Amino acid sequence: MHRRGVGAGAIAKKKLAEAKYKERGTVLAEDQLAQMSKQLDMFKTNLEEFASKHKQEIRKNPEFRVQFQDMCATIGVDPLASGKGFWSEMLGVGDFYYELGVQIIEVCLALKHRNGGLITLEELHQQVLKGRGKFAQDVSQDDLLRAIKKLKVLGNGFGIIPVGGTYLVQSVPAELNMDHTVVLQLAEKKGYVTVSEIRSSLKWEMERAKQVLEHLLKEGMAWLDTQAAGEPQYWLPALFTELYSQEITPEEAKEAIP
Amino acid sequence: MDRFSWTSGLLELGETLVVQQRGVRLYDGEEKVKFDSGVLLLSTHRLLWRDQKNHEYCIAVPLSQVVFIEEQAAGIGKSAKIVVHLHPASSNKEPGPFQSSKYSYIKLSFKEHGQIEFYRRLSEEMTQRRWESMPTGQTIQVNKDPQAGRIRAVGIVGIERKLEEKRKETDKNISEAFEDLSKLMEKAKEMVELSKSIANKIKEKQGDITEDETIRFKSYLLSMGIANPVTRETYGSGTQYHMQLAKQLAGILQTPLEERGGIMSLTEVYCLVNRARGLELLSPEDLVNACKMLESLKLPLRLRIFDSGVMVIELQSHNEEEMVASALETVSEKGSLTADEFAKLVGMSVLLAKERLLLAEKMGHLCRDDSVEGLRFYPNLFLTQS
């Protein structure tokens, strides 16, 4: 039989006090969350107003897009993180970049067999513009870079490699370390590189130079010209686009995502 | 429309460009006229219209002729318009495309938008009436013939000036937009601070926050694009949105997966889903975060990450290890295969073909021959023939 009395009462009291304390604690978070919810609504209104005045500007003006992105980064906000975010929904920035992502993937896939999954930003830009057609919104190289940065998370090996004054875009999960990158940068000037050039510019041993070049050959990113005068030349198809027709053939297009 | 005169389209000394807009059609009163696609320019002194197809074709009317302007909202199938009411043409007006008109007003139809800005600028100019205080000194002697229209030396100066004005104008537009943007960012920054403060409270209380509140908080972060300050992951799993998305994906991807042998790379999925949506596209992170929830939600698909980092979606019924057995058969039949050759034979993407061969190698069924000619796989005779 339970003793109803002081003991039970004291326990009950204690429990009540605890519950109240907990309640209080939760109420604090509840308060702040409620405040955040209210502020979010206000912010949404501000963003709507901004969008009504400047949505066109963002769509049409690449420089303004850059400023917008930089400011977001400065305050710790990623407007492209989710299609469900306010920025995406109200400013339409999301759709712009996510669609660009799709177009980038398709171009890279269509040309992969030619260049091993490495392409200059210029060529990518040209091909993407062509695919978009005359009536589509213009995109800048900065736009492409931002879209590519977002694509990295898909695990397909998307990466950006600085070479010369521009960038190479990697779209295959091939490992390219510092050594490979440096050789790519060296090859950028002429579109090809030789073992001697690597040894004299970078002061590497023969073995190291050969290893890097062989890796690039295996990945299909470099082609070997053994008939060159002097020593063999390692050409990078990604870098010699002038020698190629700029068109993606129907077969290549079929290779891309259905 | 009889108030317009032919013009070279060059600005005169003392005249500056205020704003311009492409894709504008003109109406004489209620009637469309042949000027259906042009660039509308507003200067401090005039309203000009230049044909987009034929740049020599340019007409203008002085702002001093404008009585008042009004906006006409867009309708279904109709562009927004600005109605410009005009004084009667002066007797010494330069010749123009129309000798007479039964209307005393014209309409500017903005087929490519831009009417808001244009109306604002036009109103400003009408208020400021700068043409009265800035007489256009020596009006440049221009050929009256609209087809010829240009004198070279003056032409270049005029073009340079126009470019300068356009640059200043763009700068002005940008600085206004930029100001608004800065103010907006200030407010966004407040949101970031608030979210950090809440996150700290959550950390302090160590679990005294309810599941419900956590979910709410995460969804607020999602809306703002703020990384979760507690876990540092961007939204991770666990928002309602991603859960719903995961379920949607399970529905959308069932058939495509079956058509592709039960497996697709995440980039393929990204393209497929977004192409199908057309609007309100998924971000790459949205997709990944939704896929991470597939297994826990017991959906018939799962996310798999290979050693190389390649991410794929598989049907639950798909067994990659079993596929490896058939891959081994295929390779054995041919003696040896590269990823490219295997992909063509089996009808897979090269990316996934390579992953399958690598997996087969990992499981000990295949051996590699890695040379400059490429990566080639052979049946592992060490295993079978020892």
TrEMBL record, chain A:
One of its GO terms (cellular component) is ESCRT II complex. The keyword Transferase does not apply. GO terms for biological process: protein transport to vacuole involved in ubiquitin-dependent protein catabolic process via the multivesicular body sorting pathway. It comes from the Eukaryota. It is found in: Cytoplasm. Its main location: cytoplasm. Gene3D superfamilies: 6.10.140.180, Winged helix-like DNA-binding domain superfamily/Winged helix DNA-binding domain (1.10.10.10). The keyword Cytoplasm applies. SUPFAM superfamilies: Winged helix' DNA-binding domain (SSF46785). Keywords: Coiled coil, Cytoplasm, Protein transport, Transport. Belongs to the SNF8 family. This is Vacuolar-sorting protein SNF8. It comes from Probosciger aterrimus. The lineage of its organism: Eukaryota, Metazoa, Chordata, Craniata, Vertebrata.
Automatic annotation (TrEMBL), chain B:
GO terms for molecular function: phosphatidylinositol-3-phosphate binding; ubiquitin binding. Keywords: Coiled coil, Cytoplasm, Endosome, Protein transport, Transport. Residues 160-187 form a coiled coil. GO terms for cellular component: ESCRT II complex; late endosome membrane. One of its GO terms (biological process) is protein transport to vacuole involved in ubiquitin-dependent protein catabolic process via the multivesicular body sorting pathway. The keyword Secreted does not apply. It is found in: Cytoplasm; Endosome. Residues 1-138 form the GLUE N-terminal domain. Belongs to the VPS36 family. Component of the ESCRT-II complex (endosomal sorting complex required for transport II), which is required for multivesicular body (MVB) formation and sorting of endosomal cargo proteins into MVBs. This is Vacuolar protein-sorting-associated protein 36.
